[in-house]
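Subject: design request, 244 residues
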């Protein structure tokens, strides 16, 4: 059986790193991206340490030239992914009255416009092969809102709506499109938050803890598998019961 190429954006750390690692086996050819050369080196170092044959590229979804260069490099290396995991993201938080148009635009570009460009480009190969998996990482915030994140929430809600539409467009070609919406997950972002605030949040979660990046990765890998053939157009929430 031929190896499936898996592209995971924003995979030098956190959730993306765990997702990329979950696809690091003989069944797959993992492809990671980072916004900096150091991030790319970290991905390649991880591949080397785990004896994995994979690729890594620099990609800034807020930069059209960076996206074009990324497409050219993949084409040159003959890497057209059958599985696309749109994980890369940024946060530029502020109350709406204080939010600059630049911060609004950058978050929309990275989470929504950039992902649109990736999906549109890689769909051609999936349509030709009559098989493909697209998994977009959303957020519980898209469903419940979050003060100070109007840009982030709007972008995540947008990607969920776009994913449903795309799922209708390509379903007949055996291509599934789904979203995974994590709640509070143990990443570097949580380390910057006040401990008392984190305890308050944890107390509101029925499972009484924050999620682990490996748990997100397991769900993504399932949605990319043959076992998930009949799941498309869905947003799967994984948040310990914080949002039901």
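Subject: RE: design request

Done. Sequence follows.
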């Amino acid at each position: 059986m031929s190896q499936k190429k898996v592209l995971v954006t924003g995979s030098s750390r956190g959730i993306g790193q765990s997702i990329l690692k979950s696809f690091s086996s003989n069944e797959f050819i993992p492809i990671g991206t980072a916004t900096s050369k150091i991030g790319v080196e970290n991905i390649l170092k991880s591949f080397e340490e785990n004896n994995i044959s994979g690729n890594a590229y620099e990609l800034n979804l807020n930069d059209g030239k960076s996206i074009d260069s990324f497409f050219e490099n993949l084409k040159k290396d003959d890497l057209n992914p059958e599985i696309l995991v749109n994980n890369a993201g940024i946060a530029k938080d502020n109350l709406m009255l204080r939010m600059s148009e630049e911060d609004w635009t950058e978050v929309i570009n990275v989470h929504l416009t950039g992902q649109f460009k990736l999906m549109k480009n890689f769909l051609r190969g999936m349509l030709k092969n009559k098989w493909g998996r697209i998994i977009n990482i959303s957020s519980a915030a898209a469903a419940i809102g979050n003060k100070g994140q109007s840009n982030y929430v709007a972008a995540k809600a947008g990607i969920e709506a776009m994913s449903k539409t795309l799922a209708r467009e390509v379903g007949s070609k055996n291509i599934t499109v789904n979203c995974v919406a994590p709640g509070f997950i143990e990443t570097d972002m949580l380390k910057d938050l006040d401990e008392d605030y984190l305890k308050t949040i944890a107390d509101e979660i029925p499972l009484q803890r924050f999620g682990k990046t490996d748990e997100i990765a397991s769900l993504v890998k399932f949605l990319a598998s043959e076992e998930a053939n009949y799941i498309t157009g869905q947003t799967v929430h994984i948040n310990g019961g914080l949002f039901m």
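The chain has one domain: 4-238.
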